[in-house]
């Protein structure tokens, strides 16, 4: 029988969550996560996935996964440091390093535990981490786990970064100081100011960490935001996920030989959690090869995204400051954002609301992720739905 204490806790808190509209509802998709999805028998244009290049459902990716399963089995059988390092894992790490322009790389089972493991492997009590205030939850949790002092930096504010870096150095309180930022911010689609960050880091001797979950496969011909700026020798940690544009699952850090060697003996999810499945590793290698051999896939993503953004702007929407395919349609009010998403879905466009506390209060939005897999016809249909629903709700006129 469940403990009374637990029952009471769950009952009270579930009711509270439900009353505040924060209880998660989860839609179940029939079939794969492509440019169109089916939910409860209804086909919808999918504007909510991170499958930027449409790789998740590609036949050659599926074959890479199946072939690896046939060679290695479906599971690695152990953690990496015991005997769960299969040839395909090292091949993946070498491929990532080659693509990112670094000496080596380390692969984790997800982007989330990569951040948890990598940050805490290097940063400790007695250190300080300067962290952009809009960084992803996994960065925040990784920073907390590290025990280092966390200093929030105003979003993309280089003056604030410099002032706080100076203050931290001058205080003499800290051994190491890191600046950590998303490469592409997932809610607004703005891009980290890598050259300015590098200049400040050099002045104050900061360790630099860029989480490029949304930049990998998108920026720098697929190789990411750091490579886009040609700064792969200047950023210490190029972190990324295999779950978004790559279309599979997993996370990694690309960096110097010494950094990777250190993490391989210190990062706890690497040491104590079973390695990536061989199929996931092999499909991820295939995805990187596809980007290297076919630059047109990344180009198609940008063309589709530019088209979609232009059409939404033309009909009067505020799509914020996005410099990447991430396309927020900002409506302000939190309840309006919820209703907007509900009506879009009813009318055939699957786009989810994003509200406080994920984004600042009063900046509620519906977020869209156009992908290379969307046809122009799908995007036109989506824009027509946006026009109808926006007019019905008085968001546009
Ligand atoms: N970092 C950022 C910036 C992300 O957007 C995400 C995914 N939501 C992650 C890390 C975690 O990646 P994963 O889904 O591969 O665990």
TrEMBL record:
Entry keyword annotation includes Transferase: yes
Pfam families listed in its UniProt record: Aminotran_1_2
Keywords: Pyridoxal phosphate, Transferase
Example GO molecular function: transferase activity
InterPro entries named among the record's database cross-references: Aminotrans_II_pyridoxalP_BS (IPR001917), Aminotransferase_I/II_large (IPR004839), AON_synthase_class-II (IPR050087), AONS_Archaea/Firmicutes (IPR010962), PyrdxlP-dep_Trfase (IPR015424), PyrdxlP-dep_Trfase_major (IPR015421), PyrdxlP-dep_Trfase_small (IPR015422)
SUPFAM superfamilies reported in the protein's UniProt record: PLP-dependent transferases
Cofactor: pyridoxal 5'-phosphate
Keyword Magnesium: no
The protein, known as: Glycine C-acetyltransferase
Species the sequence originates in: Vagococcus acidifermentans
């Amino acid at each position: 029988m469940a403990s009374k204490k637990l029952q009471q806790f769950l009952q009270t808190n579930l009711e509270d969550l439900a009353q505040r509209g924060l209880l998660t509802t989860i839609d179940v998709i029939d079939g794969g996560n492509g440019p169109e999805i089916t939910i409860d028998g209804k086909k919808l244009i999918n504007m909510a996935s991170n499958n930027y290049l449409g790789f998740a459902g590609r036949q050659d990716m599926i074959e890479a996964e199946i072939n690896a399963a046939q060679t290695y089995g479906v599971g690695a059988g152990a953690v990496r440091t015991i005997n769960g390092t299969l040839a395909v894992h090292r091949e993946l790490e070498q491929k990532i390093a080659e693509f990112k322009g670094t000496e080596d790389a380390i692969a984790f089972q997800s982007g989330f535990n990569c951040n948890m493991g990598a940050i805490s492997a290097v940063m400790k009590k007695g250190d300080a981490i300067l962290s952009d205030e809009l960084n992803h939850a996994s960065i925040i949790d990784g920073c907390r786990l590290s025990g280092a002092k966390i200093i929030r930096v105003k979003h993309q504010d280089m003056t604030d970064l410099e002032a706080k870096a100076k203050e931290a150095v001058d205080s003499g309180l800290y051994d190491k100081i890191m600046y950590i930022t998303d490469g592409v911010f997932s809610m607004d689609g703005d891009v980290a100011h890598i050259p300015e960050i590098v200049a400040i880091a050099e002045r104050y001797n900061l360790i630099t960490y860029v989480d490029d979950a949304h930049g990998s496969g998108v920026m720098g011909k697929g190789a990411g935001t750091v490579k886009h700026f040609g700064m792969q020798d200047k950023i210490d940690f190029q972190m990324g996920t295999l779950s978004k544009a790559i279309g599979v699952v997993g996370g990694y850090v690309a960096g110097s030989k010494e950094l990777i060697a250190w993490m391989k003996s210190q990062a706890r999810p690497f040491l104590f959690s079973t390695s990536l499945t061989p199929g996931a590793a092999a499909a991820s290698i295939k995805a990187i090869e596809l980007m290297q051999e076919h630059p047109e896939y990344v180009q198609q993503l940008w063309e589709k995204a530019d088209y979609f953004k232009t059409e939404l702007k033309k009909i009067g929407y505020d799509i914020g400051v996005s410099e990447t395919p991430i396309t927020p349609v900002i409506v302000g009010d939190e309840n309006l954002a919820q209703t907007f998403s509900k009506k879009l879905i009813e009318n055939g466009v699957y786009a989810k609301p994003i509200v406080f506390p994920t984004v600042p209060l009063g900046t509620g939005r519906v977020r869209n992720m156009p992908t290379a897999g969307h046809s122009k016809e799908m995007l036109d249909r989506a824009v027509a739905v946006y026009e109808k629903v926006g007019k019905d709700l008085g968001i546009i006129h």
